[in-house]
Amino acid sequence: MFRDKNHIVIILIFILAFFTANLSYPDYFNRTADFINQKTHSNIPHFWSVPFKLGLDLQGGVHLIYEADLSSIEKDDYSSSMQGLRDVIERRVNFFGVSEPIVQTQQNRDSYRLIVELAGVIDPAQAVREIGKTPFLEFKELKEDYEQIMEDNQKVVDSGEGEIKDPFKATSLTGKYLKKAEIDFDNTTYKPLVKLQFNKEGADIFEQLSERNVGNPLPIYVDGILISNPVVQEKISGGSAQITGSFTVDEAKELARNLNAGALPVPIKLISQQTVGPTLGKISLKKSLDAGMIGLIAVILFLIAFYKLPGFLSALALTIYVSIILALFKIVPVTLTLAGIGGFILSIGIAIDANVLIFSRMKEELSEGKTFSKSLEEGFKRAWPSIRDGNLTTLLVALILFAFGTSFVKGFALTLSIGILVSMFSAIFITRSFLRCFRNTRFENIKWLWN
Predict the structure, then answer these.
(1) Residues β-bridged to residue 196
(2) Which of 15, 86, 248, 282 has the most C-beta neighbours closer than 10 Å?
(3) Domain C-terminal end among 227, 256, 273
(4) pTM value?
């Protein structure tokens, strides 16, 4: 009965291997399907094709470093101003269609920098122009004929013909009149809200604006993108206002950062621009994959030569491991960089190390004259603490690197972490299931296969 259960597990493992292998590289399956369809006039569909997401160093693109001028900002507001600036720049690069942009802040002593990585950018000059603008915050109000505009828009929606018109118009209240936005909490409900404080001139403009818009929305835009749409409850004097709603604390913080980013003058200066061509990226990718393939083949040959049949089974499990990892990279998805590929290749070594520990323990048990079944179970049992502790330690380091590292370090840490988790599954589950197939068979008595 045990063998029947193990055979079911083996079948499931091979089904998993089939799907992950074809997801990782569907070309062989699709060409075979085309050949069969042509010969038999059948209609076998192609396998799901999902491309890998490649980073800047593999796909090509532009790497930009900006220095922020915080001379007009209070020192206590440096961090929130940079976070708000980062949010705005991230929206900008997403707006003109950059895939998987990386936007992050960096502090180097008294210098605050913004690092932008744009993979696959066709026109780097346009990206530089768009990013270099200072964020613009503006308040809008309903147009006088907004009711007619809303009726016309509804007709356009119903008929599907015509153009939707904007019922809002710009006002004179912009970010230069906003002194500060900060998170606060309601004294009664304790829910988070955002407090706005305008300067003297802004207070007068806001008082007039709120008076004529009681009961109407007063949308707020940064760089033409709506970030909040509060409704005016009453005329507001004194230059202090609140934006309330069903905010979480994080949402309120993000809104305050975006308001400050558009309100505070944080000019940025381009100090470094590096362009990576797509041809160079393809060469780097090919060399990395070739190195990984050569290393994998060399390790497989070593396992088979040194460990005989267990080494062959380990090589088979390792091949399935690689197909699972590559499929996960597509499904998650993981943006692959050279550093990320390095983390993946390192995880292969960790997976091999787990198998070596297991087989060495098995050899020790067999050399003491124990049966194959007993040696198999004892080998896994005795190897598990070393595998567990080693992998968890490496995983902890990878998580620390991911939390505090730069973008390339994060890519390395992410692929390494995924690889570690799957390697434990591969060594303990897949390899073990393969070895159990030989339990109570005539092969377990052939000593040279195991020693």
Answers:
(1) 181, 241
(2) 86
(3) 273
(4) 0.65
